[in-house]
Amino acid sequence: YHLVYGERRYGPYRTVQNALRGVSNSIHFVIGKRSPLTFLHAGAVEIEGSAVVFPGRSRWGKSMLVSSLVEEGCGYLSDEYAVLSPEGNVLPFSKPIRIRDGQEVTVDVNRVGASAPGGFPCAAVILTKYEHGTRWDPVPLSRGQATLETVSSALQSRDEPEQVLNAVAAMVANAWCYKGDRGCGEPTAAMIRGLLE
């Protein structure tokens, strides 16, 4: 299956369901690009009333990480976009989690999203990607480094750089910031709580 819009062609998609998901993702992208809120390409969970955000590119394993943390009792915020208010609070963007397994995609529809009026303050920003056989050993980042490395994850970074910079700087202002690749099953919720203590 292919989606065609004017001269542009999207796909191929193996199933009608994947083609419809492509339409949904495109709508989310357009909304994100035009929103007064900042859309970060990131996974996010809630731990004890605060958000933990995992900015990163596609295929960095954010969905698997978010899913495993939710199974451990963390609140589900997003596996695709962390939506930031101008004050830097993290708003949920809960939808079924997509887990890739090779070329196949399975959808986990059983994740109830966490929410709070005005969003959650950010407790940690963790820049991490999955690398087979790697042991997670995060190193602290300054808030300035975390801001610079996170800004490029925003949909609006080219169109609204001031909005993005302000929102990301506000998000990390009181957050612990770390960077480090991870292996299977890491980090656990207990590991993340340890970083926040």
Strands, helices and their partners?
Elements: E1 3-5, E2 8-10, H1 16-34, E3 38-47, E4 50-55, H2 62-71, E5 75-78, E6 81-84, E7 90-91, E8 97-101, E9 104-108, E10 122-127, E11 139-140, H3 143-151, H4 161-172, E12 176-179, H5 189-196
Parallel strand pairs: 4-10, 10-12
Antiparallel strand pairs: 1-2, 3-4, 3-5, 3-6, 6-7, 8-9, 11-12
Question: Top keywords for this entry?
Answer:
5 helices, 27% strand, alpha+beta, globular, 197 residues, 12 strands, 8-stranded mixed β-sheet, two-stranded antiparallel sheet, single chain
Q: In terms of structural class, how would the helical and strand content be classed? A: alpha+beta
The proportion of residues forming helix, as a percent range, comes to 25-40%
Provide the gyration radius in Å.
Answer: 16 Å
Terminal Cα span: 49 Å
Structural shape: globular
What percent strand?
Answer: 25-35%
The oligomeric status of these chains comes to: single chain
Quick check: average pLDDT?
87
Q: Would you count the extended β strands for me? A: 12
Structure description:
The strands form 3 sheets. Strands 3, 4, 5, 6, 7, 10, 11 and 12 form an 8-stranded mixed sheet that branches. Strands 1-2 form a two-stranded antiparallel ribbon. Helix 3 runs antiparallel to helix 4. The longest helix is centred in the N-terminal third of the chain and has 19 residues. The chain has 5 helices and 12 strands. The chain is an alpha+beta fold. The chain is globular. 29% of the residues lie in helices and 27% in strands. 37% of the residues are buried. The mean pLDDT is 87.
